[in-house]
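Quick log. Single chain, no ligands specified.
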Amino acid sequence: MLGDRLHGLILSASSAGFANRTPQDRARYLAERVAPITEQGLTIAEYTPRLLKTMMAPTSPGPLVDRVVEVISAMRAETFLASMKAITAYDSRPALRTLTVPTLLVAGEHDPGCPPAGMRHMAELVPDAAYVEIEDAGHYAFAEQPDVFHETTTAFIRRIQKIHA
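-> predicted structure:
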């Protein structure tokens, strides 16, 4: 049924969730991201550029990276805080096991939020999954290494098109 409407799926910089992490790890994750806003009184625009730099490869400057920082810095605080809390509550492992379409998982080599090891584990849960790790990229591989990301995803889409041609 899903394959009638969806022929393939690309998951980039994704996490299976925090269900397998300790309550202390979940609390630490939230505190690192929420406390600067709720306790220190920083705005999203003041806080997120510093956070985003820690989520990218050291060699990741450029206009697309600047755009990621600009877009996330413009988020409403309520939206940012809600997304952080949602991340720690979600467990995608059951859904991953039910995927029936070819799936590409793309990880950035330097992604601390959705590390390559976690994405490789996700790929093991998905039947017919392919895993690609992009060098010199972090969480925002599409902006940090746009040419490699484009080539990777385009090749996957072409593979799917051949299957359904």
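The radius of gyration is 17 Å.
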